Amino acid sequence: MAFFGRPCVVTAAGALCAAALSVTAAASQESKSAAVAKELVLALDAAKATDIAAPDPVNPGGFIAALYIPGTQLLVVSAKYSAPPLMVDRITARDFMGVYVDLQSASVRGTKVFIQDQGADGLSARPGDGPADTWDEGDKSVAFDGDWKKAKIASEADYTKSYTDADDRYAKMLAALLAQVKQMKAKAGS
Length: 190
Description:
Elements: H1 7-28, H2 32-46, E1 51-55, E2 62-69, E3 73-80, H3 84-92, H4 96-105, E4 113-118, E5 133-137, E6 140-144, H5 156-189
Antiparallel strand pairs: 1-2, 2-3, 3-4, 4-5, 5-6
Helix pairs in contact: 2-5
């Protein structure tokens, strides 16, 4: 009952606790990309495929490609390409590995994003015992290992925001690739 005379202290303490819990909760919640990654991996396994590519629906002139190493990792690249019709032709011909290689090596400078999804299970803000997922964009690289200081990120809140933004973008990339697998399956069934 000693707090009745000090409502500011109670309010400030409550606000600090809420802020600390929100950062911890954001870091520990399941990622948006986890469910999509799981569904994509199942679809690739069912199709006995290890690569896939698709136009980027949110980035005109951009493309997304993935190399799936079963049980190990998902390597995903997104970038613009100087000759978009060539990429469209390769996707139509199901030359997904060619798209992957070209996006890795000959993409339009400054547009490439490369994700190493260890475990092929979506991005994780803090890995368990295994290696960390990584996000490379331009000259910036972030290993999502929970150590924001090593990543030269100012604070845990900034690290959490970087992770949340990357996870959201990655989920959209995976969704485009999943739609491509489903479209191929539908064409094969008709």
